Amino acid sequence: MSAGHIIQIFRRVLGPVEVAPHSDFFELGGDSLLATRVLSAIARDFGTELSWDDFIENPSPDGLFAKVTAAVR
Amino acid sequence: MNGESMRVVVVGAGLAGLTAAADLVAAGADVTVLEADDRVGGRVRGVDIADGVVADGGAAYLGIRHTELLALMREQGLNVVSTGMTGDSTFLLSDRRTTTASRVPPLDAVALGDLFDRLEELVAEIRPDKPWLSPRAEELDRLTAARWLADEIDNPDAKTFFPLFIGEMMAADPAAISVLHMAFYLRSGGGIRYLNAFEGGAQQWRIDGGAHLLCRSLADQLGDRVRLGQSVCAIDQTSAEVEVQCAPGADGTRPRYRADRVIVALPPALAQRITFRPGLRSPRATASTGPGCAVKVHLGYPAPIWREQGLSGWSVSSHGPLLSTVDDSPSDESAGVLTGFVTGSEASTFSALSDREQQDAVLAHVGRLFPQLPPPDRCTVTDWLTAKYSRGCYAALFGPGDWLRLGPTLTTPHGRVHWAGTETSIDFFGLMEGAIRSGHRVAAELVHRTGPGDAAAGVLVSSHASGADLNHSSVE
Fold it and tell me: Which partner from B109, B257, B269, B455 sits 20 to 30 angstroms from B231, CA to CA?
């Protein structure tokens, strides 16, 4: 699993948009409802439950992957 | 073809009836609109909040996908005003108050995401044009949304959130609606994300000055074709024409109107109460069809003072009466208006209180929500449950069994009687946009006699028709 997988989650939740590793979820048109769906997908796929605060601190694929890695460690 | 010299009676001067009437007048028809109430608009109405400030007591919001509403507003010279959502949200969950930047309550975010995923799966299953033909339609039509929650969702935070979400989206108690209706409604309105969103969603704007201005403007154009205080109680038809009978007026006489075609543009439960001769072959509502359970409370302040404290005015509470609040202040900030939504089972409880008890409950709640604000100067309650000529708001709630029973014939004419109203619109069901689309659809049905209306004569043939009826219908 990598940040690339979180890019795929972003695409699945947001629909057809260009997502880069550093893209901000909210700038891509995401909202808090969709953010909860990203968090549930991360929990399912990575086995790590991040919080809302984790999400907004750095709402990009890279940022979220760093949170997942930190939580696993 | 056009509608020249066709006599049409439209029953109900809500947005659907007014739209249909306007289209038919433009096509050259001779139109009369009968409205039982002493005002036009139906579930669209203006409520006086302060000097010159009018709030939307009923339908209020729209978004970019509401194309027919936006077009009609342009025609009538009305503008949109953005719904204010800048600032932090306020949450009161089990008496714990928090403020956050997110619009979603501070509950287990992963569990809420799982819930939305499950709802998305249901929405994706629905066949948008004919929900009653969806693959699992029978199963989903039998099951209430409350039962689905109990069976499928374990997380306590998701269980707390679900009725709040369904209350806000649909003004429904999850026990009163089928899963098919819930999933259909979410799909019809543009999907969960669109229906839920303010910016970029179905609550992006309000109509500047109030949605009632649109109905008033349409009614002004129709002039004395609109008759108020005409409560239709019976619709009789022969092969040649239709007679619409009203309840006795002040002078004891029963007004009667003759027409070639009648459009019933009422909420389903009210249409069902009219006596039709010959009788309806398929009902407009059943014992399971419930009223939309919404009471709107408008709190008037001298200005939108919560904005100075970095608050958006948006709040969600886990307990009533004010399950959510929205900043609906006029665009010129000449006053502050917070709209409180009392929905679902909380609306039924609240509606049963006395005026005094309602005021006390609202003021106590707003004091807990916004302890830093002075109490509002005014508190106005618009109760749709007791509104005699609407019987609920936002829209009728289809209970278990309703979609399979009512869905296939939602727009099927009963002889010379045609149907309109937001509940007959597969797109944007329950919204102003759905009402307008139904009005355009039914007017086109009459003018062009296309679509499901072509089989109309069958109603009379099967019930009490003579040979003359058959001949007449064959040339129609």
Answer: B455
